[in-house]
Amino acid sequence: MGSLPTVVGVDGSAASLDAVRWAVRDARLHLSDVLLVSAISLPKALTGVGILPEPVVQQSRSEIRRILDEAAELAALESATVSVSSENSAVATLLELSATSRMVVIATRGLGGTEQRSLGSIGFAVTTHARCPVTVVRGWQGEGLDHATHPVVVGVDGTKASAAALELAFEEADVRSAPLTAVHSWSDADLTVGVPIRGLEWPANRPAAADQLARILEPHTRRYPMVSVRTAVVKDRPVRALLDHAQGAQLLVIGSHGRGGFPGMMLGSTSRTVIARASCSVTVVPDAARNPSTTAFAAEQVP
To answer: Higher confidence at residue 22 or residue 162?
Structure first.
């Protein structure tokens, strides 16, 4: 279709099929092909003689095929798909594909997760190290969702990571004809704790924080004039603000790390908490520099 593919990890669980439904719809909006991926990591040696019994190998391969066929049957109702099976680990497979994909989609459970609000080790590794945006799908709201009334929410803190998240959030809101809510927290620290610091009084600083957010948003509002934007500027505790605004949202978009991060940091504490506790699906967007393939692909499209 002329766009980088949308990759979705499936493992046969009901949650991963919800991820397939979400990925198919998102891919259709972005004119992207869907790549279904299932992986079962087979040990190189399981017996005393160092040979994995052939029936075990064949059974594992058969199970992968069954999982992919089930997901493909579901996805083919709406979009052309390609299936990929792998005997490498799910993490290794998804991370390798993330270097040449527009998005990786996974479920909050399945793929190694045990509870609905636990991301699981595989999900954590993928959101931490992927080279492209990763969406963690929490349930499927169906095609009947009124996108005009359920906003896309994005966290904005002025960092490079949040700049990449902001660009994607506007794009997602635009293709969905959905409103966008930009949430900016003035401070990462809880300013209600400890002795008040002179000069940090919120009433005096709130106008400057609102102006800063408006300046950050201005290039995007010009680029996406049809997107209705609402802003929310809060004093502190970005996690609470993001989770509050995620209530009733169709998607929450965040950067991989915020102002408290350090060079080389892949996933910050705010991002981890939001992914685990948000009531809607969450897209984690890495710094643009982590996915050079996207820039290269865009350059190839210029005549």
So the answer is: 22
CB atoms within 10 A of CB 209: 17
- Helices vs. strands in the chain: H and E counts, helices first: 9, 10
- The matching CATH number, chosen from 2.60.40.1570, 3.30.360.10, 3.40.50.12370, 3.40.50.720, for 6-137 is 3.40.50.12370
pTM comes to 0.82
Hey, what are 188's tokens? 């990462």
- In sign, the C-alpha dihedral spanning 168, 173, 174, 176 is positive
- The encoded tokens of residue 291 equal 């996915």
Cα-based distances in Å from 165 to 66, 78, 157, 277: 35, 27, 10, 19
CATH annotation of 152-300: 3.40.50.12370
Where exactly are the structural domains of the chain? 6-137, 152-300
Task: State the Cα–Cα distance between residues 67 and 72, nearest whole angstrom.
Answer: 9
Strand, helix or coil for residue 260:
coil
Average pLDDT over residues 265-275: 74
Distance between CA atoms of residues 6 and 122, nearest Å: 18
Helices 120-129 and 90-98: crossing angle in degrees, nearest 10, is 20
The H or E element containing residue 256 is none
Q: What is the pLDDT of residues 217-239, one digit of tens each?
A: 999 999 999 999 999 998 877 88
pLDDT score of 261: 44
Residue entry with tokens 């966008």 = 180
Q: pLDDT at residue 49 above 80?
A: no
